[in-house]
Please model this.
Amino acid sequence: MPAPWIDISLPVAHDSVAWEGLARPRLRFVARIDAGAAVNVGQLDCSLHTGTHADAPLHVLADGAAVDRLDPALFVGPATVIRTANPDAITRDDLRACGVGEAAWGGPAAARVLVATPSQYDGVRFPAAVPHLTPDAAGHLAALGVRLIGVNVPSLDPLDSRGMAAHRVVFAAGMGVLENLDLRGVPAGTYDLVAAPVRVVGADAAPVRALLRRRRAVGRPSLAR
Model:
């Protein structure tokens, strides 16, 4: 029997906070059965960065690709979950301490790296700071051929960043970005990931329903591209 799927998505709810100062989601019904309509029809108004979502290059680059232009294959396939301990940053040394780039690193699951920092965002109480991905660590991942980086916090960069250096390094390498993953209780290891973003034309981000399923141990072929 295959392993069960694990939902690693934060919900989009009335009390969700995409970013400090932004309006919270509003779900309203423009048609209701109890009011005489044939069906219920809901309309959701919220930031595209609410809950678990994928960033597109357009988020940080004026001429960057929108989310509907991203290759969905970036977000579907083998992945590795690592758990870091540094409360301030995700550095090259932190990645190496988790085996990323060491001699045993490789195989299909090395193509996508999901980082469970010690500061899991709950989607409601927006943090003052998060462990951010350093540009050096982003370059390390790019050099290894990693195709996707995912984190359990609202941003790859410091929350007060204006240069968005980590995002820029990642996007320059053609990598995908997932933010606000819910990795509570997910052990480090190799998984299958399904987390393609909604195809919102012209958007800088889009929500995803991110799912993991534990992979059986296999050999260590070269990094899957």
